[in-house]
Amino acid sequence: MATIHTTTYPEVYSLAESLAILDRYKSDLTDEQYQQNKSVISSFAIENMYLNEKDILNLIKIDNGVNPNELIKEILKSWNVNE
Question: What are the sequence ranges of the domains in the chain?
Fold first, then answer.
């Protein structure tokens, strides 16, 4: 039986909302990490794609050394998608 992830994160509809989420985690990041993540979030917003809390937590995981490819594998597995 597949694990169902019950934690849901609300959709975000503006750059300001995404940056407010990032600000909640600012104390967990170096200034360089914070600025880099702010840039990534802003770049997505240019295309009207706004990162929610789960997306931002994934950015922070990558900052903390999680291999992005492993993170993608986990996400695909949670969606029951085979590689």
Answer: 15-78
How confident is the model over 23-59, as pLDDT tens digits?
999 999 999 999 999 999 999 999 999 999 999 999 9
Residue whose C-alpha is closest to residue 74's, from 19, 50, 62: 62
- What CA–CA distances, in Å, run from 55 to 16, 66, 69? 15, 14, 15
The 10 Å CB-count burial string (b at 16+, else e) for 48-83 is eebbbbebbebbbebbeeeeeeeeeeeeeeeeeeee
* Residues 63, 37 contacting (CB under 8 angstroms): yes
